[in-house]
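Q: I have two molecules that I believe assemble together. Could you output structure tokens for the complex as a whole instead of separate predictions?
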Amino acid sequence: MNRRVVILESIAGPLYVTILLASLWVLLRGHNEPGGGFIGGLLAVTASVLWAVAHGRVAATARLPYGSAMRLTVIGIGIGVLSGIPALLLGLPYLTHLWGHIPLGFTELKVSTVIIFDLGVYLAVWGGLAGYAIELLGMDEPDAHDDTAADAAQELRA
Amino acid sequence: MAQHPSHDPSASAMSLGARAAYVLIPLLAFACVLWIAVTQPLPLDITLPWIPALGVELDFHIDGLTLLMLLLITGIGTAVFIYAGGYLAGHPQQNRLFILLTLFMFAMIGTVMADNLIVLFLFWEATSLLSFLLVGFNHEDPKSRKSAQQALVVTGGGGLALLAGAILLGQIMGTYSIQEIITALPNTEITPALTTALVLILLGAFTKSAQFPFHFWLPNAMSAPTPVSAYLHSATMVKLGVYLLARLDPGFGDWMMWQWTLQLVGSLTAAWGMLLALRERDLKRILAWSTVATLGTLVMLVGKTGHGATVAVSALLLAHALYKAPLFFVAGNVDHGTGTRIIDRLGNLRHAMPWTAAAALLAGLSMAGIPLSFGYVVKDVVGQAGALGAISELVKFANTIFAAVAVAVAAVAAVRVFWRHPGHNLTPPDAHEGGLALYGPPLVLAGIGIVLGVFPFLADGLMSLAAHAMTPRAEAVAVHFALEFGPAALLSLATTLAIGALVFIYWDPLHRRFDRILAKFDRSGSLAQYERFINGIPVLAAHSTRWLQGGDLSQYSLVLVSFVGVFMGAALVAGWSQWLWPAWVMPSAGFIGACVLIASGALLALFQRDRLVLLLSTGLVGFGSGVFYLYAGAPDVAYTQFAVESVFVIVVASVLLKLRQRGRGQGLEQTHSMRGALPVALVFGGVIAVWLLVVSGVEFNPQLHQFFGQVSVPEAHGRNVVNVVLVDFRALDTLGEIVVVTLSFLAAIALLQAVRGHAKRQRALDKTKAGGAA
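A: Yes, here they are, computed for all two components at once.
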């Protein structure tokens, strides 16, 4: 393991949450203001990179939703693919986005399959690029399980 | 010759039922073709829409020529499937052979039925690819692999020429329909473009049908299993070139260039192929050369004009399939029963292999053109057609050689191997006859050849239909085959037989003489040229790799940058008079700030030797561009740029730091500059700068811009046009992009895992070394 940096480690926790919240905000406002799934996902990647620098590869991967970059990116694609299905059921071309209005009395909430699609983009970008960056950052870290176990066994034999 | 079917019972052999099931496929197809022939009015057109936007439809056209080819493909196919069941019985990969043969059969059916040039090309290429797989069926044998590669390079290369020719022809004629093209061609003006198209198509046809100088691949393809040789390399695939020429003949037939090229190349191939047959000792290769010669004769006949020639083409197509396929089967049986195909080691086999001997004799009669065989009828027709028209002397000469050596080759295959021949004999002691599946198909096919010889009028209907399809004005051709025994026919028969008999008797001395003479040409022949070409590829690749990719990254950059610089600079200079310079706009403070950031980052990077500082200063360039986007009204792009730049700098910096911990990656010890780098960099920068100025001088087309600006809110309920385009209007593209992100991640993971595995092994190695030292 690398030398630990106490200041970075202690500040990483609150920063991680803050960046993720900011990325979610960027994702949600995307349709009307600058932002969206791609940019939100990239912001989330910086959060994961921060965690990887502070705590290492294994910890950063564990911190990702579903605990694996691969799973995360595949789930993102799955959500993106599924968001186009409702249109097909209504006989519209694939990925035609549907909009609905839920009245809340004082205002009305607009809901749409667009945000589901954008969420898929967000997760896929986060998973794919964060996984790549984390792997690069942790190139020299041994795997959590196999190496230590092998070392322990070797020491026992010695 | 290492293609003995293994009789290893433990191998996963196919059951008899499975083999019979495979035979059903060509049999059913054959039945379908017969049904079409009997019940449907010809020509029959079938159209299925495929790519309507490009005008490519699955147009199929069945006329007499197609029908003849279909009968050969499915009829000979049935015989081949039965034979393959017996020949490779117990072979562990027999199933693969059957699957490939089935695919091949359908590719052939598609090729001869297609009425669209592009569709024809696709099936044509499929036959080339399947031929590659079939020739290389014994893929553990390096000779097979080499032959397969040769067949693919020659026919595949010709296929590319054919594609270019087909597209060119289609563009000139305004249609890809073969029927429309050949109807319109006689009234079309001869232009250089049309001639180019013709030359390209001829290249495709000549390579496929093994015409001189591309003839060498066919005999080498004999390393394929015998069923494959009989099917692909005698009865069907190699006839595709002839088929295409015959198909186009009504269109091009009046061109002098067409007539001369076809007759010259065809005659040369016919004569040369027969001479080369005399050089061989291997029964299969002898037959292969005579196939090359027959293909030459067919091409020559297509180049002739008149009804007689078209009838001769269709008759020879049928007759050749009916005698050559059985002879290949015979060669396979001999190989199967004795373990060799070298004619010196064979003789007197008729006692051990009576059925095969009978089949050989029947097929041999037809090939030699003895009366009461279909070969005799055909030889007569071919002789009459060949004597007409231009350059008839050369054609007649080639025809005589062809016919005479055909007699000798037939005698070698039928008499020398199965009867006693003075000087050579002795039946190999272990010679034995194969099963019914081995001697049945050649007997039946050769038998049909004899039946048609005795009752030639049976072929009249089919032949007149096929000849009709090859006739320009599509007039009906009356065909009446009859047994001719006029004095002229008998005289020519006697001459051919006499020369043929002489060649047969003096085969061995002739063989030695020819081998000695022709060996001198080996170094300059087309096979040698082909070898030179193939061996030249890795040499050229090695040279260009050494020159362009020396392993020095700055060298790569220099090559790339100078290429782009010269290329774009030339374009800039070429269009100099048309460029407009943009109007001067007073920049805002933000613009100036961004430019200062970018310029200072770039200048800082120039004088850095420490890699980490170098990285940080290039990061400045990235952030400067981000600021620039912000002020240029593209906040989304700016956000993305910032995020990407941050991740990039952090990741690369961390990698660099780790390298440094290990005492590597300190940077360059001293100033390092390449010769010529400075002027190249200056020119490149200047060219790009001028380009950017010129590009921004072009008037901006606001059409898309306005469209999305207008429809974004009413149709997609979003004010951020960039995001609306990404997730709504072009959502499918975005879906594709995130899949690409994931795929590149997957690819990178595999690479990084490999590096990590290497590092782990290294660590373990270090550890054991340290342990040993302690």
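A: One point stands out. The longest strand of chain A covers residues 99-103.
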